[in-house]
Amino acid sequence: MIRILTCLLFLLPLTAAANGCHGDVACPLGDRSYHVLEPDGWDGETPLPVLLHFHGWARQGDVVVNHERIAGATKLRGVLLVAPNGLGKSWNFWSADTRDVGFADRVLEDVAKRYPIDPDQIYVSGYSYGGAMAWRFVCQSGDDVTALLAVAGSIRQTEDCQQAPAQVRHVHGTDDTVMDFPFGPGGDTTFPVALWRQKFHCDTAIPRGDWSVKPFLTLSRVEWTDCAQGQVTLDIHPGGHFIPHGWIGWQLDELAGRTPVYP
Question: Is the pTM of this model over 0.90?
Fold first, then answer.
């Protein structure tokens, strides 16, 4: 996938905005579509990091590009937000036999025809069913993805993933009853990332302490940095099924080597 994107960098970009699709106006792609949102202050030339974000159940990409906790983070950080539209406002992430992975690949290829993008900064995210779809995508087509940023949704931890991103970052609430927090044996709270810990051959869980951007919600972080490949980060909180304030922006800042800020 990324090799194709790299080749497309040498083509003269025709921005989606100039082509009539941007924000609430979807970009057509065959019989499907996606939404795209440029960051604030972009000069129209500098290659852009990309956040491919899969919407939650019963939503579409227009919700994503207007969402304060998603678009609010990308607009301020020079990141191009890309939000595919799921068929029937949902995603088929249940098995590797899904057309949605190929569709998402085509979305990224189409975006690269419209924008100069940075193939070394491709982030894949999603919330709820979209979080599970983000896991499915990087499991099937993630070898060149910089990081998975998943929120309150995943696939079975017993899956055998063909591919993997360079980093995995996942956040989940222990009181989530919509996409239940996947406690492991004996109430193990590190189980939500067991698949990636095993695939990356990680060993030691390192507690990184608590952090928050809002006084009413504290997140506790655990990292695995001794992996044979990749790195895994897990943030847990005592809340339910939602995108924590500041979480996406916090991850983008850290991945870019910046001191995290809110918003």
Answer: yes
